[in-house]
């Protein structure tokens, strides 16, 4: 037998630069992170109007081209990918050049996938402009497009060279999109201890005390919030880049959440709303299994209620329970839930039955929704 010995020969660490109004200083950060002479900027029609000119104004000296995608999850597909590949080839991007994603998670995921495949991998920079993308999708290297048979089914792990987060861009975010991001932020609060980040920052307390500042995008509070969530995500990804274990904790609320999105054709709820309902479900299952006590169940439910983020739902509990079987985390036909086990700590559990899911969903249906 011959053996191909593979050791990582390059350091794939990368910086996350966070600040308010740093988009106009992009050149400095990009020059530090890559040797690119040409930059291909991928964005969508909405973000283009808001931030493209500001970004490009700061990039004198680079040769620049753009790809403008249509706005929406339904364009996270092979045609958008093809558009990026086509432009990259026509622009004669070389391996040392770079592709930039300017936008939310949709633009980030497609662009990262294009970068991972173009010339077998070209430098890639994330400039996320939604809360969800700033606290979650731009960090960690999961890149993908959707297939008609499933979301994010085609993709790769491909880390960016730089994540540049201008929290000022959040000021133009519609309330609905802010709430979607807050769904993921709340998730970090409930997995905080399991991230092994050791920052001594209690996200739950911070969230309890800063709701108004967060909703008003107060500069320092927003920066602190985004920075802390990125620290937690970076800590998890550093320990388990390819999701062989710990990284799965980032999916708290996602097993039921994805099932809810799927059974409502991705039309009724935003991803964040579905995750919130999924988290409420996970907390209820954990309580029913006696993993957590009533005090923690109430603390978590109250925090979610405080953020006015529970959608009116009328959930079909049996249909949703059945749909969890198609979750990406299924191993040996067992659905793997991420469940709270003590305050701010979660664990993987593969013994959740269909009956337990149905019972939990029926209980969360009784929680009053946010007006
Ligand atoms: P999105 O990219 O569709 O952005 C939401 C909306 O906000 C869009 O209409 C967009 O044009 C608009 N927008 C973006 N920035 C704006 C700004 N600053 N001001 C005003 N409008 C702005 O959605 P999203 O919530 O950012 O991302 C969702 C996607 O992320 C999904 O496809 C999901 O699968 C993916 N995701 C990936 C990861 C990962 O680890 N890679 C993690 C979570 C989610
Ligand atoms: N958003 C889940 C992950 O990055 O693993």
Task: Walk me through what this model shows.
α5 (131-137) packs parallel to α6 and α10 (254-263) packs across α13 (317-323). This protein has helices at residues 26-33, 45-57, 78-90, 105-117, 131-137, 175-191, 203-209, 211-215, 219-239, 254-263, 271-288, 294-306, 317-323, 354-364, and strands at residues 16-19, 38-44, 63-69, 98-103, 123-128, 142-147, 150-157, 162-166, 337-342, 345-349. It is globular and about 60 Å long. The mean pLDDT is 94. β9 (337-342) and β10 form a beta hairpin. The chain is α/β, with parallel strands linked by helices and 371 residues long. The chain folds into two domains: 2-173, Rossmann fold, CATH 3.40.50.1970; 187-364, Dehydroquinate synthase-like, alpha domain (Up-down Bundle). The protein is built from 14 helices and ten strands. A six-stranded parallel sheet has the order 1-8-5-4-2-3, with helices on both faces. The chain binds nicotinamide-adenine-dinucleotide and glycine (GLY). Glycine (GLY) is lined by residues 136, 140, 142, 247, 250.
What class, by secondary structure content?
Answer: alpha/beta
Ions, cofactors and other bound molecules: nicotinamide-adenine-dinucleotide, glycine
For the sheet with most strands, the description reads: 6 strands, parallel
Count of β-strands: 10
CATH superfamily of the largest domain: Dehydroquinate synthase-like - alpha domain
What features would you highlight for this structure?
44% helix; six-stranded parallel beta sheet; 371 residues; alpha/beta; Dehydroquinate synthase-like, alpha domain; two-stranded antiparallel sheet; 2 domains; binds glycine; globular; binds nicotinamide-adenine-dinucleotide; 10 strands; Rossmann fold
